[in-house]
Amino acid sequence: MEGFGVFHRDVVLQARDLCYRPEAGVTLVEHVDLDVRAGERLAIIGPNGAGKTTLMRMLCGMLKPGNGLVHLDGESLDRLPMAERARRIAVVGQSDQPDAQLAVRDYVGLGRIPHAGLRRRSDDRDVVLDALERTGLLALRERRMGSLSGGERQRAQLARAIAQQPHLLFLDEPTNHLDPRARGELLEFVARLDIAVVTVLHDLPLVAPFATHVAVMSKARLVALGTPRETLTAALVREVFGIDVLRLPHPDEHDRELTVFDVPIRLSR
């Protein structure tokens, strides 16, 4: 890994020697180095308790590392003013609880708060309408957030993040509580945004179709970093997750493979 002394313009995010251990607790993240470049989609995967969410929270500035540094666009993340950080980074978390009475249009408009005073209000309205249109929510803009389905609410959260016009988007397990088709549609939409994305994913079959790069966490350490083909090997998946992975020819697309994760379920007869 290159140090902070060498910075490439297409590198959006750099992390070096990230560690986190709460007081009187076990180490949650230990000595993680990684880079995220413009347009890349990095999926952070690993079993429960591996340190995935803790790592993501340090990368986006929600949690101060116990050791190590994070640079955003070549600048130290912890030295950026909060407003400037919010203009560059958007976060969609698991615990987001929008006001149920808020109109979808007004909720998405919250993404413009970091830009207050920097643009005309008419420009902000155009950005919000564009975010609603891109997420397929334009017809629902007057609906209350509490009336939306789980998938619609997820898209509203994405629309709010898009309205921030960030350089980098963080998603913490964005496919939770969605049915299989909605999961695929959500990640397909995110992939079309053409910005750098860092996401924690639990659903392994979705990783290879979505991610350009994968960070595999195990026991607080980064044990693999690379493309899906480089990281989702049979040996590594078996070692980290305790399951087998099979690669099969795609029945319709000859230049693609199907990745099948074989989860052992043994029932007594």
TrEMBL record:
Family from the record: Belongs to the ABC transporter superfamily.
InterPro entries in alphabetical order: AAA+_ATPase, ABC_transporter-like_ATP-bd, ABC_transporter-like_CS, P-loop_NTPase
Organism: Mesorhizobium retamae
Molecular functions per Gene Ontology: ATP binding
Keywords assigned: ATP-binding, Nucleotide-binding, Translocase, Transport
Top-rank lineage group of the source organism: Bacteria
Name of a matching Pfam family: ABC_tran
Record Gene3D superfamilies: P-loop containing nucleotide triphosphate hydrolases
Ranges for domain ABC transporter: 13-244
Protein's recorded name: ABC transporter ATP-binding protein
UniProt function note: Part of the ABC transporter complex HmuTUV involved in hemin import. Responsible for energy coupling to the transport system.
